């Protein structure tokens, strides 16, 4: 095996094409049974398949240039269904100026949408998971808890008032990748480690901690406002929702303290935000420290559900 | 949509990365239900998933450099099954000096193995489907009928004597991509159009004819020796097996007549063979002319079956 610019096991792969340039590649499969909740249209499912891949490129600071698609189609789908899938794929790609340039279809029992992304990057600008140092600021690009609450509503387990319900469900149906933020941050050279949060905030923090051999003290939880009434009304724990939810597409980053302002400005310039949630420390433990109470952050993540509209 | 170096709808996609170089990309999905016959091991299925993708690269004259895999795993598989899949994927990649550098696994109802290939190529060496000219020689890299006969045996529809059976079944279980041949031919500049034959010889000829706006007169059918007793014993037509079988991974090519010797030498130098089967003509019809009898070659191809060992 040649020395890889990104270690095996990461969400994204890269291959050295010379002159300091990398071919950056990613493939991930959306399976309706575990990734598409009831209430999500085929158009939304296809778009989401692209978003979940783009989100991993965002965490590396790489722009996807082209998208390839391999579709496994169950028998029951009609022509309009397939058109909706095609349009959703295209919408997902065009949001980022990328194009669907090829692919393949076949028959399968589940609806399976396998996406491949390709882009190129300067090797020295690539954000990895392994560079966090004690003293670095831990930051995220947005608030957590909305998508997971929306999914819980779509799965029929929980509910919320009409207004809050809409915000939460929309967040689950129309996820957004933080590509603008990732690209802007990779150019600042302020970032020592980055990952997306599709498996949940706690899981993402554990991945960076392990790859970088550091620990974290998290003293500010980025709880979305709308997740609070949802948690209260359904007797759920907001900390649980924020840390161990998933299907969120925020970036989780560590930032050199001297470059914090630069990083924050870069993100704000592209319309985003960068929220400090804690600090990296030498001791390889993940601690949540809120109201002077300390608690271990567990290496638990989002588990896919079983439910589908197809 | 930017102007693509390979038209949308081809089996392979490309993206211009400057200086006359292309990023060449391909994704295709093996679904156990339609691509894995009973009697094919998981190791063989995984290897075949790579071979089917490499074969399309071979037809373009492009060497795959890295392989990404996205796996959908049904619940019944155990640890050893998954190890066999991993080893088969690796075997398929290492046959061509390529490496599996990343991927993703999830749960699915079928076993789904989605492969993505990446390689680079000089734009001017790429073999397309669209360059055949009247007068060009039509050629293939090997004989047809063995794989489809082997599949028919595996599906339990037909049988053969022990010796022939083994050759035919092996051919279906362990397909080989003609990458060496494709790479050697692309360097000769003798090839005006190329495609692989995974959907059958007739289908491949029709694809080149349509893309190049030519017709073909085929006067020599490349029937594999072992397919003859199989056809005779099972009362099957050898022409049918050769033209409309599938899951074969030979290359189908058109060659500039003045460069024929050069092309043949190049293929023989890498241990392969190049067999003339006919000529390209201006009239856009596909004619089989054997023993002074003329017959239309129909645009029919290989249909996937429904049967699986997983």
* Name of the CATH superfamily of the largest domain in chain A: PurM-like C-terminal domain
Structural class of chain A: alpha+beta
Shape of chain A: globular
What does the largest sheet of chain A look like? 7 strands, mixed
Return Rg of chain A in Å: 19 Å
Distance between the termini of chain A: 40 Å
Low-confidence stretches of chain A: none
Say what oligomer this is: homodimer
Q: Residue-averaged pLDDT of chain A, rounded?
A: 94
CATH class of the largest domain in chain A, anyone? Answer: Alpha Beta
CATH topology of the largest domain in chain A: Phosphoribosyl-aminoimidazole Synthetase, Chain A, domain 2
Biggest sheet strand line-up of chain A? 7-9-6-10-8-11-12
Total domains of chain A, how many?
2
Kindly estimate the percentage of residues of chain A that lie in beta strands according to DSSP.
Answer: 25-35%
Q: Please, how many helices of chain A?
A: 10
Q: Largest interface, by Cβ-Cβ below 8 angstroms: which chains and how many residues each?
A: A-B, 46 and 45 residues
- How do the SSEs of chain A run, as a string of H and E? EEHHEHEEEHHHEHEHHEHEEE
**How many E strands of chain A?**
12
């Amino acid at each position: 095996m040649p020395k890889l610019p990104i270690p095996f096991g990461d969400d994204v792969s890269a291959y050295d094409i010379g002159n300091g340039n990398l071919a950056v590649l990613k493939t991930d499969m959306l399976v309706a049974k575990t990734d598409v909740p009831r209430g999500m249209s085929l158009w939304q499912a296809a778009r989401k398949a692209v978003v979940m891949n783009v989100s991993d490129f965002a965490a590396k600071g790489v722009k996807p240039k082209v998208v390839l698609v391999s579709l496994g189609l169950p028998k029951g789908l009609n022509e309009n269904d397939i058109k909706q899938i095609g349009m959703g794929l295209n919408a997902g790609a065009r949001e980022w100026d990328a194009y669907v340039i090829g692919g393949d279809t076949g028959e399968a029992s589940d609806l399976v949408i396998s996406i491949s992304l390709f882009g190129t990057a300067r090797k020295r600008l690539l954000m990895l998971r392994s560079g966090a140092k004690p003293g670095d600021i831990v930051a995220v690009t947005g608030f957590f808890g909305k998508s997971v609450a929306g999914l819980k509503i779509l799965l029929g387990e929980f509910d919320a008032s009409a207004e809050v319900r809409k915000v939460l469900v929309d967040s689950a149906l129309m996820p957004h990748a933080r590509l603008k933020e990732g690209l802007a941050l990779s150019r600042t050279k302020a970032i020592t480690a980055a990952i997306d949060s599709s498996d949940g905030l706690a899981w993402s923090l554990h991945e960076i901690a392990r790859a970088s051999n550091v620990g974290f003290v998290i003293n500010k939880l980025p709880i979305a406002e709308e997740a609070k009434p949802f948690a209260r009304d359904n007797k759920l724990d907001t900390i649980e929702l924020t840390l161990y939810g998933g299907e969120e597409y925020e970036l989780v980053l560590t930032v050199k303290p001297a470059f914090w302002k630069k990083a924050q400005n870069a993100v704000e310039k592209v319309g985003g935000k960068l929220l400090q949630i804690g600090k990296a420390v030498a001791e390889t433990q993940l601690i949540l420290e809120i109201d002077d109470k300390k608690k271990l952050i567990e290496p638990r993540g989002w588990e896919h559900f079983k439910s589908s509209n197809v």
